[in-house]
Hints:
Elements: H1 2-10, H2 13-16, H3 19-38, E1 47-51, E2 64-66, E3 82-84, E4 90-92, H4 110-122, E5 133-137, H5 140-144, E6 154-158, E7 174-180, H6 190-199, E8 205-208, E9 212-217, H7 220-242, E10 274-277, H8 286-308, H9 312-330, H10 346-362, H11 368-383, H12 394-404, E11 408-412, H13 417-425, E12 438-440, H14 450-460, E13 468-472, H15 475-483, E14 487-491, E15 506-508
Parallel strand pairs: 7-8, 10-11, 10-13, 11-12, 13-14, 14-15
Antiparallel strand pairs: 1-2, 1-5, 2-3, 3-4, 5-9, 6-7, 8-9
Helix pairs in contact: 4-6, 8-10, 8-11, 9-11, 11-13, 14-15
GO cellular component, one term: cytoplasm
Binding site for Zn(2+): 136, 138, 211
InterPro entries: Aldolase_II/adducin_N, Aldolase_II/adducin_N_sf, Enolase-ppase_E1, HAD-like_sf, HAD_sf, MethylthioRu-1-P_deHdtase_MtnB, MtnB_viridiplantae, Salvage_MtnB_euk
Amino acid sequence: MAANGAKMAVTSQAxxxxxxxxxxxxxxxxxxxxFYNLGxxxxxxxxxxxxxxxxxxxxSDQLIIMSPSGVQKxxxxxxxxxxxxxxxxxxxxxxxxxxxxxxxxxxxxxPLFMKITDVIVIFQAYNMRNAGAVIHSHxxxxxxxxxxxxxxxxxxxxxxxxxxxxxxxxxYDELVVPIIENTAHERELTESLAVAIEAYPKTxxxxxxxxxxxxxxxxxxxxxxxxxxxxxxxEAAIKLHQLGLDWSTPNHGPIQSSKPHLGGQTTNTSQKRxxxxxxxxxxxxxxFVTDVLFPYARKNVQRHLEETYDTDFTQDDIKLLRSQVEDxxxxxxxxxxxxxxxxxxxxxxxxxxxxxxxxMIKSDRKITSLKQLQGHIxxxxxxxxxxxxxxxxxxxxxxxxxxxxxxxxxxxSSGSRLAQRLLFGYTDYGDLRNYxxxxxxxxxxxxxxxxxxxxxxxxxxxxxxxxxxxxTDVYQEAVAAKAAGLDVLISVRPGNGSLPENHGFxxxxxxxxx
Length: 514
């Protein structure tokens, strides 16, 4: 009854003429003028839609304001907007204007906007965000970037600062945007758009070849911010292309002659693949982690907490540890001790933190709270040259070879992404991070669970999971990755644990065998 009452309230004449609806109409008029000046909605093209934000109305029931189709976007006012219900029915249509204005028409994008909203709602069950606004741009850069390689199904870019403005992405991540083919009428794009959204659960945009882009966010601010970042990245890729540089690789070096320009992809996908590497026992001796990194963290945890206690990152670490310890106490975890409140004083809190961290390290627990703190402790050690990253002798040359061949290499470790970057950034062979395209840690899931590798596969945007080669020394990780469809090799290095008989996996003793 409450939900039906909310729907009836927002469709009432009083609500339609209320301040929330008027403010959203005014906002879209303002955005249309802004986007016109950016070249995104010129020639009457493009469109903007946003939900009417109202805390008293469930987001699923909020009204939708949409700019009309085929009108001068820079001259629109509040009265020109359409008002749609949450199900897509038209509640208010603008009145026709005298010649030479064309009669108003609800945008051809309407089915697409509704499809985006519907699909995102479905994916909320998979930790996706509900769309609160959708922007459709005809910006030239969003059109040209899809034309550089007519066969490419994705746009990819990495190691660009503006990637950080895209939801769920950081500087070191590879941004993947699906590309769908254009049709004569935008409404005919609905199904292909839905397929792309489902196939790329991390994406907040879909490119339409020779046409433009759809961008969405949980609010108009999120959608606008991301649209600006996407257009910047497309323009950067086009300019790098003109310079003969490959924007899809970390160092943006010269485009390899064997690769067409867009995203460093080849049309023969069997020649190129992604490689995901474990660290312990694969790139790095287990002894370095157990005999060097862990003891350093254990020895320096108290000093680190005392020196950085009031910093934002340490307070964040403490918050995560408190939550983990509370859970441990409820489940009777050995060595877990209560952490007093801040009122007990800094030293009392630190003493309890140190006791818990030592217990976690002793048990070699693969938990985010510990890994994050360890990463911050190790950062100090690497920056002070008290630590130096260790990799097997065959690793640097292999990374360089794969990089030169256009193969994208990623790391997946139980250590935090910060710790991973530190290890490869401060080695005896120099900084190896230029050969790596991204890092995964336990935030994507436990390394012994199949769903973690499904998430990685979806994040990398490969056509098939088997396009990814995963290399690890742990049998259970190999089994989980294989179940997700990845190709798997087991690394057999000095100091590694024994494998089950008849384990059924190919093994290597050196990356030179790959």
